[in-house]
Amino acid sequence: MKKTIKGSIILALILLITGCTKDEWMNPVPITSVYDQFAFDTKARIEEQVNGIYSSLKSGQHLGGRFQIYNDVRCDNFLPRSSNLVTNFATWNHTVISSTNEVQNLWGAIYSTVNTVNLFLEGIEAAWSGGKLDGVITQAEYDQYRAEALAVRAICYFDLVQMYSKPYHMGNGANRGVPLRLTANKTREGNDMAPSTVAQVYDQILNDLNDAEPFAKADFSNTSLNITRVHRNTIIAYKTRVYLHMHDWDAVVTESAKIVPDAAPFTAKSGVAHALNASYMATFASPNVTKESIFSLPHTSSSNPGTQNFLAHYYQKGSSESYYLVTGPGSLYATMDATDVRKTSMETASSKVYIMKYTDRSTRTDWSPVIRWAEVLLNRSEALVRAGNAVTQEAVDLLNAVRTRSFATGAYTLASFATIDDFINAILLERNMEFLGEGIRNMDLMRTGLAIPSKSSPDFGTVGAILPTAQSYFWPVPDSELSYNKLMTP
Amino acid sequence: MKKIFLLFSLLLMTGFLVIGQTSLVTGKVTSSEDGTELPGVFVTVKGTTLGTITGPDGKFSLQVPSAGRTLVFSFVGYVTQEQAISGRNVIDVVLQQDLFNVDEVVVVAYGTAQKRDVAGAISTVSGGDIAKMNLQSFDQALAGKAAGVSITLPNGVLNNPPVIRIRGFNSITSSSNPLVVVDGVPVFTGNIGGTAIQNSLADINPSDIQSMEILKDASATALYGSRAANGVILITTKRGSGVKTKVTYDGFAGWTEPYRLFDLMNAEQYLAHKNLAYANAGSSVVLQQVNGPDGKPVDTNWADYVYQKGFQHSHAITVSGSSPSTSYFLSVGYTDQDGMVKKNFYNRKNARMNMDHKVTKFLSIGASVAYTNGYTESPNTGSSFATAGAARLAFVLPPIIGPYLPDGSYNLAGGTIAGMGTGLAAGGLGYHNPAQIMATNKHTTDSDRLLATLSASLEPFKGFVLKTVYGMDNLARETTTFWHPIGGDGYSYGGYAYNWTGKDKRWTWTNTANYNLTVADRLNLGLLAGLENQRTVSRSWNATKTGVSDPLFETFAGPWTTAYGVPGGGYGENFYSSYFGRITANWDKKYYLEGSLRRDGYSGLSKDNKWGNFGGVSFMWNVANEGFIANSGLNDIFSDMRLKLSYGRVGNMFGISNYGSLFLYSFSLYGDLPTLYFSQAGNADLKWETSDKYDVGLSFGLLNDRLQADLNYFYNDVNNLILNVPQSPSKGIPGNSIPANVGSMFNKGFEFSLTSYNITRPNFNWTTNFNFTALKNEVTELAPGVEEIRTSTADLETTNITMVGLPVGNILAVETRGVDPATGFRIFVNAAGQEVLYNHAATNKWTYRSDGNVAPAISTATDAVAWASPLPKYYGGLDNNLEFRGFDVALNMTYAFGFYVYAGSKAGIRDQRWWNNSVEVYETAWKKPGDITNIPKPIINDNISNGSAFPITENVEKGDYLKIRNLSAGYTFKNILPGVMNIERIRIYGQVFNAFVFTKYSGSDPEVSTNTDSNLAPGIDRNTAPQARTYTFGVNVSF
Fold first, then answer.
1. Within-domain flag for B571
2. Which terminus of chain A is less hemmed in, N or C, by CB atoms within 10 Å?
3. Are A72 and A87 in contact (CB under 8 A)?
4. d(CA B761, CA B249)
5. Is residue B125 part of a domain?
6. A39 lies within 8 A of chain B by CB
7. What class does CATH assign to A40-308+358-483?
8. What is the pLDDT of residue B102?
């Protein structure tokens, strides 16, 4: 029995040492991420979540780079150096289908931001109404954060319908839009949701922008934040773009009147004092912080859109996957005056012409423009003419403000335009020159119902024009959405 | 806890013995071979724990209680013998050599057992069999060695971790790799490198391995509970034995090279072909021949700039021995290998010390310490689509351009290889210049691994053993990248350096109590109870610098201008806590019953799901030991005959991340500002995947065990499979999926293995091992609402589909039916079954073959079908070993049948962009109406017709193969210079690994796997590096 006792003692000792499971080992708390229930505990975390919404918006798949790039390269100004499908060759030659990466990735990136916004809104609203935020943030801060989130959601839905649906003016928005996700998703429930109509999506965009406008900050009193976060003028500026697409010219005039003064110098009359820079290229020069930018997404070497997503990869002359300008007879380049800064700022390499707005290929720090003051002026100019059905001096002045900055001797007068169409054509041409590489061209073609013109590459052949009636005029709904959302329609 | 105490108390109470009157028995044990005395033979009284060991003269003396009836004599390498005492006082015994390994002892979960007492499905592979193949890691050498075990080498890059599947794919999204346990301690597995791939299992020098046991059914694996679903590989390293100090040296040298590379067009053929393709497209472009630096027309074979004959050599020295109380095994090894790809290099330095010491009669301690330094350099061999991928560059680049310009500098424009005035893109083709990236870029992995165990066992009384084992697996590693600014990936950064450093630490503490006893002379009982805790912590950090000030410096520590990005880091931890027990019982070695239970807790699961119970039972009937066989004379034919049945439930937790149940927000940046974003939609209901495994087996030996065979039928019902349930992308869930236990599948099959000792003469031995496995896998359930899972290769090409009713990971492709003889266009078949032609030169590219009307474009999304399964239906191996006098010859073959491979690289070598094509394209492409061919009319820039844009069935091929995996021949000299050098034996040999492949597959090798370990996308050969053939010559010396 002695042996038994000896054995038992040793056994008991071993059990004692190893038997008691360490509780903290069995229930580890992550030290590199935050549990969801703690995400609204401090002002810093809430502010970080607001930044997180913007950070999602600036994904390289969306407004960090590719969205602007898609809207340029699918049009008529650029030719690719490479046939790499990763660098948007299929977008360029209009062969994207529902399974193409561009189509899937943009959709996914935008909806990811939408859900980030919805999670934030539900989270902060619950914490606020539950009194958890008393003493953490003020009412004004609460309103302001919500306003920023709503504005981002509006931008997301605008970009979605713009790429994946017929333009608003076709059938007055009666066509198939996209699913309107307005509540947060974090579980496996709720895969199915029917798409709303284009008009319904526009209604939601305007609702969000209108809800946000009064509560958004008038001025962050910080030149950088005034560009990288949404303030009241950002929302108004963006509304001029939305109404322009809806052909609601009066609304464009009304909205733009809130910030654009009646006469030159056209410096914003309320909120952040946006104005044109004296130099065209100053807007794109590092550190990208000027009064002309209304909303741009900031990139640093630590926070950038990633390989094959950033703007400089597509437009800088050194990149073997870049896009260069069409320069033949009849091209935009050929049309531009030799003294126009927008042309003289371009560079030629191996007899190919490149825009020089984005140049940092090594650290990818060029900011991505979303909307700038020049667009607001041109939106107003166009809307004034279309709304009043007459070319006015104010409209011409607005156009000239943008035009003569770069093309000093190019000023128009009322007499330059025999018809309204002449003026509209002039303004579309101006926008084409002004916003090269900023993702505006495709929007302008689609909102005005124009065909996407044909183009011809010495390396990759001719790509025919895409008529507004063509299926490929807008992008198809991605496969994955059709597969897992049973209520979605192509 | 209470229950366990109870169990122990029960166990202990049966532990006392009644010892009454005794009588002395003496005797001598000799060998049947030459009559020499055998020292060290165990002599025990059957049914008791009394025993002794024979002395140097083979003699023994033992006090036998009056109740003792039989003595048992056992010795390694000899057949155990029983002698009835029958009142004798002197018993001399002649032991028969165990020529047929009848008495082999095998390692089982937490212990050892006699092979014939084990009911579970276990395959044993000897360490010697593995070491002699001269591979970097033991797992590579397991191919064809054991029934039910499939080993696939993804490609010929040095030290690539093979894909190991035991009885098939047992998961969909979790790992299907087995648990690997070294000397009782679960170790880290898989690739531990970055671009420079390094197999963590190569840290165990194959020449240190004594044996490997592969546990396959639930009865064998049940004690590993939640990690046992994919099978378990137990590695036992060598220990010291023998009175004499034994010294061995094993060395080899040789070379390795790729085989079956594509036969590609030369410059002349390329120009003719591409200019025809331009003309066919109505283009006036004409490519030109230019001269290279040597003034001659450029005609580059790009494979010359990617592949090489890689030299290798390796050395291992071991010293082992024992005294009555202490045994030791020491080894050091040095391996230095160049791969078949240039700049692919592996170096290993390792040392091991295994030691066992008997402190007192009842206390033993043991330790093993193994340290390994592994260093790997490798270029980006880039399976799939990387434009830096060396394997792809070897066949994609045109022969009419070269790596150097006439002035001797690299042919580069904008960082990529350029047209050199041939008419190809002067501004760069977008692909890297292999000569430049091989010369200037560098990827390394450097690892330090310490594997150590400390154990103590206490035997307070005979048969009762308490054992504690503390093991640690500490892995520190650094992976680095240097990209030169002159071209390639480093160009846009102005040079790029990345360092990643990580430490993985794991300890495992196992405590067991084991009690073996015999009751009533016939009932043999074994009881085991144990506790095990295991904690793993992983830490890492990384940083990037760009803009090298002086490209002379190739390291992160060198001079750089820019800190690129915020340095990253990672942390993870997990913890297992387990209780387990096993009861084995047999009645007179006829009827065997075994039951195992394990309760596992795992930290990664939510509070309510942390704990799970696993277990297995088995029954075995040893028919041969029945009187009616033994007495009927049938045992002259059937020397062994055992029927086995087992069932068990085990788990797979490899798919559950450290914090998988939690909803998490992660940190990032918005410009300079910190952010917090929703990063993980967790699932608190997540739990283990479970496998219900059924096994029916029959083992038999014929003709006095000259033929030994095992037959097994198995059925593995896998449930609660964790699937990343796809979510509508519009929900915006991170990753568009949420993991949940929703899927089911099964594997069923049949295994047969046969060992035949064809000839066993003193000077002539011939042994044959054959094994065969038939396997059927079928997915029976996916997530609700999910009919299929499509999987892509490198996110760019959707190549596989998993559907209910089919095996996992089918190849997904659009059906094609050759080339229309009239027009030369590829015939595609759309979802409606209509034939559609594709003409790249036309405005309306897709037209119906029947009426020429415009057809909708074909796409994977709408028209691809689940075409064929890449999982072999039948596979196995055949080994023949011959020894004749001093000569030895070994032939190891492996085979697999009934499966398909997506020959994706073929889409590349037939692509009609500027890419180079195979000679087959040059010779057999459609040229005029009426031509019957598989290769359509070449039209420049046509990337659709040959399957580049999406997979087509034209490029899906049968993979059936028979491979001479290893062929070796050697000669052994014995007892050289006796008294001077005392060299016991020297063996010199030569051998070829991957000697030959018999297959109709058009790529390098049907075994390659672009997606390496993926369950969902197997069987894809997309721009993958070929396999390597290795020739080595070596010497084994023992003193």
1. no
2. N
3. no
4. 28
5. yes
6. yes
7. mainly alpha
8. 67
Residues of B in contact with A32 (CB under 8 A): 569-571, 666-667
CB-defined contacts A:B, below 8 A: 294
Tell me how far apart the alpha carbons of residues B688 and B719 are, in angstroms, rounded to a whole number. Answer: 9
User: What is the Cα–Cα distance from B958 to B948, expressed in whole angstroms?
Assistant: 20
CA atoms of A459 and B427, how far apart (whole Å):
12
Domain boundary among B180, B207, B241: B241
The pLDDT value given to residue B383? 60
DSSP string, B142-184: GTTTSTTEEEE---SSTTPPPEEEESS---SSS--PPEEEETT
| pLDDT, tens digit, 9 for 90 and up, residues B1013-1024 | 888 999 999 988
CA angle B298, B302, B304 (to 5 degrees): 105
Assess whether B134 and B215 both reside in one domain.
yes
Tell me the CATH number at B133: 2.170.130.10
Cβ contacts of residue A288 below 8 Å, gap of 6+? A227, A296, A298, A366, A367
| The pair of three-digit structure tokens given for residue A228, joined into one six-digit string | 């990288």
Query: Do residues B256 and B135 make contact, with C-beta atoms less than 8 angstroms apart?
Result: no
> What is the widest separation between alpha-carbon atoms in chain A?
119
Bond into A265 cis (ω within 30) = yes
B315 within some domain: no
Q: Say if B75 falls within a structural domain.
A: yes
Q: C-alpha B198: how far from its chain's center?
A: 13
Q: Could you tell me the sign of the dihedral formed by the alpha carbons of A243, A249, A254, A256, in that order?
A: positive
Task: Check A39 against B13: CB less than 8 A apart.
Answer: no
Q: Is A11 at the interface with chain B, CB within 8 A?
A: yes
Phi-psi map region of B86: left, alpha, beta (phi>0 left; psi -120 to 50 alpha):
left
Examine the domain organization and report whether B126 and B236 are in the same domain. yes
Compare all CA atoms of chain B with the CA of A33 and give the residue at the minimum distance. Answer: B666
- CA torsion angle B323 B325 B326 B327 (round to 10): 70
Residues A48-99 pLDDT 10s: 999 999 999 999 999 999 999 999 999 999 999 988 888 999 999 998 988 8
Q: What is the pLDDT of residues B626-669, one digit of tens each?
A: 878 767 777 677 888 899 999 999 999 887 888 888 889 988 89
Q: Does B8 touch chain A (CB under 8 A)?
A: yes
Q: Cα separation of A428 and A332, whole Å? A: 11
CB count, 10 Å around CB of B409? Answer: 11
Q: How far apart are CA A139 and CA A149, in angstroms?
A: 16
Judge whether B291 and B297 are in contact, CB under 8 Å: yes
Structure-token pair, residue B287: 């490519």
Neighbours of A367 (CB within 10 A): 24
- B562/A363 CB distance under 8 A: yes
> B178-197 burial, b if ≥16 CB within 10 A, otherwise e?
bbbbbbbbbbbbebbbbbbb
- CB-based contact, A186 to chain B, within 8 Å: yes
* Range name among A156-165, B55-64, B522-531, B749-758 with the lowest pLDDT average: B55-64
Domain holding B133, by residue range, is 106-241
- Inter-chain contact A7–B678, Cβ cutoff 8 Å? no
Residue at which a domain ends, from B38, B68, B98? B98
Q: Using CA atoms, how far apart are residues B162 and B141, in angstroms rounded to an integer? A: 9
Residues 162-221 of B with CB under 8 A from A: none
Q: Are residues B129 and B232 in the same domain?
A: yes
Specify the CATH number for the domain of residue B66: 2.60.40.1120
Q: In angstroms, rounded to a whole number, what is the distance separating the alpha carbons of residues B399 and B165?
A: 41
CA distance A421 to A115: 42
CA distance B451 to B457: 20
**Mean pLDDT computed over A321-333:** 94
